[in-house]
Design brief:
Blueprint: H1 4-15, H2 21-31, H3 52-55, H4 62-66, H5 79-85, H6 90-97, H7 103-106
């Protein structure tokens, strides 16, 4: 049986046929809940706080994702800082992307920030 995320993605595509896969992912991720039904943080198999690899998008909420006001789309180049953040070498990333990459110039982002909103302001 497919996971709830798959059901949600199919519903998103039928509701918004013009959305890209990255836009659908964004709608699902930015509306997911990081607390369980007991309003406590999601835990992993050791009952410790779950990291991004254990929770994925967290608890998917299809009804919220369908009425998402703001989505974050991705281009293939947006994955390069993510790969740098996962500590892939420049050579490894070049094999994946088939282009010259220098993480020292591109920068790196943590795995939890790929396609997540990042807003800041100066006072």
């Amino acid at each position: 049986m497919p996971s709830p995320e798959w059901h949600c993605s199919f519903a998103q595509k039928s509701s918004h046929p013009d959305w890209s896969p990255a836009a659908i992912k964004s709608a699902i991720l930015t509306t997911a809940q990081v607390l369980n039904l007991g309003v406590k943080p999601i835990v992993d198999e050791t009952l410790g706080p779950a990291d991004i690899f254990a929770t994925g998008a967290a608890h998917v909420n299809p009804s919220r994702a369908d009425d998402r006001g703001l989505i974050f789309d991705l281009e293939p180049a947006d994955y390069i800082p993510y790969l740098c953040g996962l500590n892939y070498s420049d050579d490894q990333i070049q094999i994946i992307t088939q282009q010259t990459v220098k993480c020292s110039q591109v920068g790196a982002i943590p795995e939890a920030q790929l396609n997540y909103p990042f807003i800041f302001y100066f006072i």
